[in-house]
Amino acid sequence: MNAVLQLEDFKDDFDPFTAWATIGGEGAIIDPYPELARLRQDSPVQAIDLRAHFGVTIDQSMEGLNPYVILGHKEVSEVLSNHADYSSKIFERNLGEVFGATITAMDTPEHGRYRRLFQAAFTPVRLDAMRLKFQGVIDRLLSNFMHRGKADLVQEFAFHFPFQFITDLMELPMADRPLFHKIAFAQTTIGFAPYHGREASRILGNYLTQLCEVRRELKSSDDFVSLICNAEVENERLPDDVTISFFRQLMNAGGDTSYHGFSNALTALFSNPDQLEAVKNDRSLIPLAIDEALRWNCPVMIVHRTPKRDVVLGGVEIEAGANLIVCLGAANRDENVFPEPDKFDIFRERKRHVAFGFGLHVCIGQHLARMELTMALNALLDRLPNLRLDPDSPPPVVTGLGMRGAHSVNVVWDL
User: Fold this and answer.
1) Which of 36, 42, 203, 323 has its CA 20 to 30 A from that of 224?
2) How far apart are CA 413 and CA 415, in angstroms?
3) Distance separating alpha carbons of residues 409 and 266, to the nearest angstrom
């Protein structure tokens, strides 16, 4: 595995890590929920472009399609679970542009054929085997600041652990990892920075093609990349375009959700000291806290679908081929399902939220994400005594519309 792989950088100073806030215009969106609630209460389905409504940069990948935003929990669940009437192929316009032959943009039966194979990489047995590797990432990051008594838990911890875990899992050369992270993240900007999104896709595709070729030569290897590169569907090797698409998407699907989700969980808990104290005293509450944080501020606010035929949804007539902007964040704060929906409450009655989607396309890595977030929070509470917000720093704020997360969570602890 010592072959020299070629990974390019952009030829300009494009920074994908700030692009959502700056070029995408989302940095100023602090609390979209009152307006989302007003819209939902007026009608759970609205013939508007949500990004235009909030005054942020339009998603160029959806130009030319009539937009409808889906806001109610019932209507969102219907669109995500009714695969006979609603298609995911609309993702070919954005995710398909950068990831290639992604299962996210496939409908049944094609979707099911490949999804079953990829799910095998995230079985409970395999997740247990991944725990030790993930613990190593946590230990490595904590060692950088444990001695200081203060840190920014987003910039120094949450931003790094999911991505470092994936690069560890893929056993990438250490020298390539920071640039790999940057280029992979840049793919998410396809909707508002299409040149850099496509360039990131090209660069990453070339690199991953080389990587698979190297790993296939190691016929006895059972590492994660080799497992996928040599996988078979119906006695035939997985098509190269599907294999490369999986790895292109892994960094974003596996990294962004955990990074943004954990920053939101930290914000919620540290902004509610009584609930943080309850979690400190009873670690069995951590899964509840993670789940509630995902509902309260889900990291990926919007997914897309398109009707296969003319439909009526929420009393609104929608033509086949329209752009359905499925607002997961609005559905997760629907007062008809979640009493006092704007309140973060780890003790609320458990009802299914849609932060990981719903139906056949539910997030394939959701169990990995929950494992990561649970282990990360346990580690912080175990090793940083009397952990609390830094009174000399601004309180954490969650921002964003398409992806929501906190930029900083500054804390202190006793040495």
Assistant:
1) 203
2) 7
3) 7
Residue 391 lies in a domain: yes
Calculate ∠ Cα 302-298-413, nearest 5°: 150
Those residues whose C-beta lies under 8 Å from the C-beta of residue 163, and which sit 6 or more positions away, are: 181, 251, 255, 259
Handedness of CA 19, 38, 332, 73 (dihedral sign): negative
Rounded to whole angstroms, the Cα distance separating 260 from 142 reads: 19
CATH number at residue 61: 1.10.630.10
pLDDT of residue 384: 97
Domain membership of residue 308 (yes or no) is yes
Query: What digits encode the pLDDT tens for the residues 292-341?
Result: 999 999 999 999 999 999 999 999 999 999 999 999 999 999 999 999 99
Q: CA gyration radius for the chain?
A: 21
The model carries a pTM of 0.92
Measured distance CA(31)–CA(136) in Å, rounded: 36
Determine the angle formed by the axes of helices 240-270 and 366-383, rounding to 10 degrees. 40
Separation between Cα atoms, residue 346 and residue 374, nearest integer Å: 14
Q: How many residues does the structure list for the chain?
A: 415
Residue 1: the pLDDT is 47
Cα 77 to the center of its chain, rounded Å: 19
Question: Is residue 389 in some structural domain?
Answer: yes
pLDDT one-digit tens code per residue, 208-233: 999 998 888 876 567 788 888 887 77
Question: Could you tell me the two tokens for 40?
Answer: 């939902």
Paired tokens of 408: 């900083």
3-state secondary structure of 385: coil
Total count of domains within the chain: 1
Taking the C-alpha atoms of residue 323 and residue 203, their distance in angstroms, rounded to an integer, is 29
Q: Please, are residues 134 and 165 in contact by the beta-carbon 8 Å criterion?
A: yes
CA nearest 331: which of 118, 29, 44? 44
For residue 47, what are its two tokens?
A: 């013939």
Give residues with Cβ within 8 angstroms of 276, minimum separation 6: 269, 270
CB of 399 within 8 A of CB of 407? Answer: yes
Burial 152-172 (b: 16+ CB within 10 A, else e): bbbebbbbbbbbbbbbbbbeb
Domain around 243: 28-412
Domain-located, residue 21: no
Residues 6+ apart with CB under 8 A from 68: 45, 46, 47, 48, 313, 316, 318, 322, 323, 324, 325
